[in-house]
Amino acid sequence: MNLTAQSFAEIVACMKTGFSGAGMEKRRASRIDVQTKVHISVFADGKIVRSLSALSRDLSFTGVGLMTAIPLERGDTFIIQLPRQGKPPLYLVTKVMFSRAIADSLFTIGGEFERELPHSEAESLFKVDQDQQKRIREAMLV
User: What is the pLDDT at residue 60?
Assistant: First the structure.
């Protein structure tokens, strides 16, 4: 899946940018360096199994580079929430193409966008995840 030019521009405008000509030869699309906090949710069997913050490294029309504190495996799927100026965030189902340890508890992840998740579907998934987290917290306090 490729982002539309408008969505890409809205996301980049909302994130700190700096152009970079460097990149891996395997890349099919030019990347823009953008370092900002993003939210991702690991997605499996039709539900969110873990939510966390990550640091974006770069962004292209076809994917995103991230740094995380937890490893993800090649083939894992996550939903990334990308900010847009003056609009609700864009939710993208993203497939892990690579994951490498770069330091203790620090991993670099390369993800390829698969499809846009409609806002209503994303909100529904995140509501269920928040409800599950609340039940777990309450059970731990008993």
Answer: 92
